[in-house]
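Hi all, long-time lurker, first post. I run a small reading group and we've been trying to get comfortable going from sequence to structure in the token notation. Rather than ask abstract questions, I figured I'd post a concrete chain and ask someone more experienced to write out its structure so we can walk through it together at our next meeting. Sequence below, copied exactly:
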Amino acid sequence: MASTETFKFVLILLVAILVLELIARRLRLPSAAALLAGGIGIAFLPGIPEVSFDPELVLTIFLPPLLMDGAFYTVWSEFRKYLGGILWLAIGAVVFTTLAVGVTVHWVLPSLPWAACFALGAVVSPPDAVAAKAVLGKVRLPRRLMVLLEGESLLNDATGLVLFRFATAAALTGAFSTSDAVLSFGVLALGGIVVGVVLGFALVFVLRRIDHIFLAITAACLSPWAAYIGGESLHVSGVMSVVSCGIIFGWYQHDVFSARVRVNSFAFWEVMIFLLEALVFILIGFSLRGVVERMGGVGEALSTLGMPILAVLAAVILSRFVWIYVTEYLRVPLARIVGRNPVPASAKASFLLSWAGMRGVVTLAIALSLPEAMPGRDLTIAAAFAVILVTVVVQGGTIAPVIRWLRLDAGERPESTHLSEAQASVFIDNAQLAAVKAHAYDDEGRLIHPRLLEQYTYRLTVAERYSKAPHANEGGRAAHYDVVLAAIAAGRAELLRLHRSGQIHDELLHYMERDLDLQQIEAENDRQSPA
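-- Answer (accepted) --
Happy to help. Here is the structure in token form:
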């Protein structure tokens, strides 16, 4: 397509994203499933041009910011606490799935070389951070399970990519070394961590010295690509580089961002991530068209590859169940041997961890990057698409009902070392009142800020009362903020009336409207804030 036609086509896809997202919300469907199905439907519409894309370009455009988004919000204390379980999934489960799929494919197709079979296994083995975030972001789970799934999706891509590279090289050259593979994985992962940490601290250093809102937002938004491209250029894991950089940045952003930068940057970032996630699933849907046409039609593709693809699907899903159930029940006695008191094994939690293995953009991009001379290339691409389709639509689409069925959505009590929102508010209001008292009197001891002193004293009194009995006045809390929101709405209406009647300038309108917006955001957050 010409450049102008390409731009128009992208605009059409963006409109399609809006429509599909609205349909998904109306029908209460997972957004990822609706977008994936929509991409398939759009791809086969008459007159739609064939879409081809460079898989390396897809990874470079989409993967860094989406990985950064997950890493940025990672709770470091929880990530570190459950790191052992995360690595069992991110490394152990990926390697086990690769082996299981490879053995299964070779059993179904004995003529396919072992290395090609394991390459196919490496393609479909790593659950995807984008797919996981798109699905898990809309469900409620106990923290341990959420941390394990999110942590796994951040780290397992490096494992899958290393396995794929060695399996592909072995299939094309006939040479393979286990020791070289292990050493290469260690160098790639540790090197990526080092690069990401260095770039993360460099980003923090730069942002501390930028006082312009748009320049700060631009620097922050460029950081995931800088980390990914920097890691890949140094021949280490770009995935680990982005994750490490994101964790560092997420930890220090509270210090380096002003309130104004944070409000503006988060709004821009959320829209960008929404569009990138949506485009990823649309493009995955589009990839089916090329696969079907290359194989001579739907009927021919199904008759030739139907049985091997079903075998791959079974191996992918069942191997995860086997690995998680076995390791989950081995975890407890092993932890007790070294003197730890682990969380008891749970059949319900193991089932949920096993079921939440959605694949996405990484699987697709790896499959499309296979060399033309690779044995079983068409099977690998078709199987990759089938795994993405089934895991996102079936597993992702049923994850919320499964959570309710297992009764894992009841929530859990916060750990005793953590303060509740109400208890933390007491500390904050105490600090604010102390600051107001220090400035409320002049040098001669006269009260010069009585209103501020009264206001912050009242806030502390309310916070203390609410922390002692958080549920005693829930109705009054909601009613209070209903009045606040009604007052803000009235102020907004009056501001617009003054502007429409020509009594205030546009510049003053925007300034005062922003103030009302911040008031409304604060009131809405306080009204919905958990105890």
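A couple of things your group might point at:
Residues 412-416 have pLDDT under 50 and may be disordered.
The longest helix spans residues 298-337.
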